[in-house]
Amino acid sequence: MVTWVLAQSSSPNGIHLLRLAQFEHEFSFRKFPERLHITWTYRSGANFAPSDADLQEMEEFENRLCERIESASTAQLIASFTEPSYREYIFHARDTKPFLKILNSLPNFGYKLPIEVSGEFDAEGMFYHSYAGTLIATS
Question: Which Pfam families does the protein's record reference (predicted)?
């Protein structure tokens, strides 16, 4: 089971939100060594935040993707960052190809999604631990 730790800060550019997974049992980054970043670029609304329509679209995308990858034990969402003009989802996957196959097979939204995908090998979970070491220890 996963619960979420939330952190928020603000700057002249807007509000910055971090949602970080806190795992009930130790997550095995070695079994899910591929770190994948999906960046969704949106049109900023008030305070450089996403509009209500953008929030609804991003939530639907996340729910559809997570439902499929988690039921197939392909990957796990470990964090998301909402920044002025974009949201970044961070997943750890067993392998990049099955993850991308699921991503590309999501039901049609009726338009091309404003996303970019990048990845990096991270079998130690260094990226995750760089945030979790501070946030989860103090939450």
Answer: DUF695
